[in-house]
């Protein structure tokens, strides 16, 4: 079985010590650095925006995987490209013209990803899946770290894997929320490629070891 890619979410990092946290991730086996951008409108929390992503990018040696949990994401595509995002994820639920949004992401030199909330069915991506580089499945309701994993996610990963294999085999499946050694292992078995982990990594005694173990669990 192929080892999963690991994308630690800096939402759970120590922001008083952010430069050192990013340096720690640089030296770890992490594949991406996951940046959760929240606006307090689409989700009930506010996190950070372009300036933090820009500062992280100055230190980071891993690609920035930026997840926009915001309304009107189209307004900020170019700004996040300039800030250093390598991957940009928008929510299906916030995009009126999803094909146009995905095209704009690619036009700005980033990999395009679409996120589905726990209640949003996979089949809604049938008409856009061939255009995507990645799909992010939320395995908790977005907005806060440290939530309990929603078991129905395993079924959604399998459904999405089938859709991808039939239409766009290079598209990755990323899962975010409640990822630990047990859920991570089962998600990979179901077909996931990328695991996002925030509090599980940054709350552990040895985050680099936790990242290593997640990759090899």
From TrEMBL:
Residues that bind substrate: 9, 67, 143-146, 176-178, 198-199
Record-listed a divalent metal cation binding positions: 34, 36, 67, 176
EC number: 5.1.3.1
GO MF term list: D-ribulose-phosphate 3-epimerase activity; metal ion binding
Active site, per annotation: 36, 176
Keywords annotated in UniProt: Carbohydrate metabolism, Cobalt, Isomerase, Manganese, Metal-binding, Zinc
This protein's pathway: Carbohydrate degradation
Biological process according to GO: pentose catabolic process; pentose-phosphate shunt
NCBIfam families: PRK05581.1-4, rpe
Function comment: Catalyzes the reversible epimerization of D-ribulose 5-phosphate to D-xylulose 5-phosphate.
Name this protein carries in UniProt: Ribulose-phosphate 3-epimerase
Organism: Mariniphaga anaerophila
Gene (name only): rpe
